[in-house]
Amino acid sequence: MDTTKMTISLFEALCHLIVLMLSLGQGIHSMPVPTDIPMCTASETAQYSLTFTGKWTQAAFPKQYPRYRPPAQWSNLIGVTHSSDFHMWQRNEFASNGVREFTEKGEAWTLVKEVETAGERIQSVYGILSAPAVVGGTGQMNTEFEVFARHSFLSFIVRIVPSPDWFVGVDSIDLCDGDHWKENVSVDLFPYDAGTDSGFTFSSPNFETIPQDKITQITSSFPSHPANSFFYPRLKHLPPIAKVTLTKIKKTNKIISLPMEPTQSNQLPTGNEIEDKLINTPLDCEVSVWSPWGLCKGKCGESGVQHRTRYIIMHPANNGAACPLLEEERKCFPDNCL
User: Fold this and answer.
1) For the chain, where do the domains classified as CATH 2.20.100.10 start and end?
2) Where is the Spondin domain (predicted)?
3) Considering only the top CATH level, what class is 286-332?
């Protein structure tokens, strides 16, 4: 669109651009400002510290827990502060190309460009933030960011590593409460499927989803497939796999850095930084189907014995159901006796 030839007002141009982005249905989603969301009237900006805590332990998630090549870990965090008419990602909506690349490969370039472009076009984005990757399933990462009344919302995304296209994150947390800022916000995080790769397990090979699915939350029963790494049919709900804590801090002139590389210092929390009790998710034994019955062994004219077997697919853990018998026998009469 050639803006030098436009004769309509700036407000009309903004409306046209929003309608155009909605009609395309691609990239970062932007919607008209909802009228039912309370207006933030806080007079000053606010600065927050963000602490992401991984809770991805083998005790809480024993099924197919990644221990090597690579072990369980978290990507760097990519976030954005924005207004209510912007979405970095949304449940039950299609992931953008940037979200696809980030959740599948951990590449943030396209996602950051999408956010920057949206900020330039519709001025819904205030700032981009990042925190370093966590080298482990139970580490922490920290960063700081600033918000103000026009852009009081926070969204972010963190990739689950390894995984096909799974991630955790938040979509549009409002840190403003009328005319003041919230002091503390804590949110338990659960896994999401970006809908771009059809792998069932943490280490599944690339298997593109065609056509692309919408972003969905992964639960203990969805996807309803025993091969899925998060499938725990005995549980009503999955335990949280991570947690984010946002704490309002005194405003300073400190420049917020955007670290992108993993650091060893954030690998393991110390003291009481993880306050939750250890979760032990029961994992029941899984066995294969029975093999065909073997040959009948015995003397002609007399009853014999034949066997069939099955093998263990998944060993039990955390007081899960024990494995059943792996071998059966029954009486039979030999065939083709001479």
Assistant:
1) 286-332
2) 36-226
3) mainly beta
N- to C-terminal Cα separation, the chain:
91
pLDDT in tens, the chain (338 residues): 444 443 334 434 434 443 333 333 344 444 444 556 678 999 899 999 999 999 999 999 999 999 988 999 999 999 999 999 899 999 999 999 999 999 999 999 999 999 988 877 768 899 999 999 999 999 999 999 999 999 999 999 999 999 999 999 999 999 999 999 999 999 999 999 999 999 999 999 889 999 999 999 999 999 988 889 999 988 899 999 999 999 999 765 554 444 444 444 344 343 333 445 567 787 788 888 889 988 888 888 788 898 898 888 778 888 788 888 889 989 888 877 75
> 283, 318 in Cβ contact below 8 A?
yes
CA distances from 13 to 9, 17, 125, 152, 306 (A): 6, 6, 18, 24, 80
The residue to which tokens 């982005």 are assigned: 21
Backbone angles phi, psi at 33, to 5 degrees: -65, 120
Selected from 3.40.1160.10, 1.10.3810.10, 3.50.40.10, 2.60.40.2130, the CATH number assigned to the domain covering 46-248 reads 2.60.40.2130
Q: How many other CB atoms are found less than 10 A from the CB of residue 106?
A: 12
**φ and ψ at 24, to 5 degrees?**
-70, -35
Longest CA span, the chain: 102
